[in-house]
Sequence to fold (364 residues):
Amino acid sequence: MTPADLSTTVLHAVRRAVDEDALHAPVPARVRVERTRPGGCGDYASAVALQLAGPAALPARQVAEILRERMAGAPGIGRVEITGPGFLNFTLDAPADAAAHRALLDRVREQGLRYGHGDALAGTPLQFGHAREVRAAVIADAVRRLVRAQGAPVRISCHEEPDPDWARLGVTVDAHGRTPAQQTETAEIRPVPAGATAGELLDRLGPDATRWGLLRPAGHDRARLGDELLVQGEANPLFLVRYAHSRTRALSRGAALLGFTAAGDEVGEEVSEDAAALALLALVADHPAALAAAAHHRAPDRLARHLEAVAHAFFDFHDTASPLPAGDEKPSAAHRTRLALAEAAGTVLAGGLSLLGVSAPPHL
Fold:
């Protein structure tokens, strides 16, 4: 069971409790679940009972009890416990969990770079406008990519004639100049300006580092555009993300030389034994939600931070148990599962970088 699956299960329990008049509260659009923190119990936790307690005019623990009764025996959930003032804690069922892991890894493999794309914004035409400033142009371009990945038709306009150097950054503008209609209908993108032109940044940093440097900070923060973006070391988040992707590709090449792939019915069965693997799998499973949130909030920086988290988790996982056999060791089901997870992480990294307009080379 993925975090998204668990969130859906909890949401169904809330809706059932409301339908049965056991709970008088509005049904939320989404229920948040997260990994249990140190000192907690189970695999995942949710504060949904605390959120519903006020509208329901009930103590949070009573709301939690109502929801626990309606989740007992749900597929994939082994145990539901209540802690503190009303937190729900979930322990997943191991056999069902293995099947869910396999299904998730299969889904990532099948969907490829489109994994995480959806239709949350389908049928919602959007228009964004920005000043003749490079950071605003690059953020608008990334927002265009994100909302299109969620099914929305989108149009970008610049208040003045675009800078020709923007094309070197992959930026396109559909129209320029203002009209009264555009002023009322266009959502404005107004980040803190970069303080340099596109040409100046490109000459010093190149397109990938320039885009990452402009997109990684939140729009209300100043972008750091120094030589640290070119450092070939894991302290540089851009290098970390791209290096993690290139390592996943190297693992696939190494497996092919050893004569095995990630395919197989047993893939997914070993993940539950490894905390680092579970942490990486959870981030892979959260990728669709991360893309949807970045599109909804018009915030490419959210996607950049998600990719950094995936990269860190990948290296933790890789250092714990390599997907490739050592010495004379024969490839096993465990190696195929680890390889499938590494390849899924690589797909998430490549797909996310593509939406940010940053390249993901197979060698670095």
Summary: The longest strand covers residues 77-83.
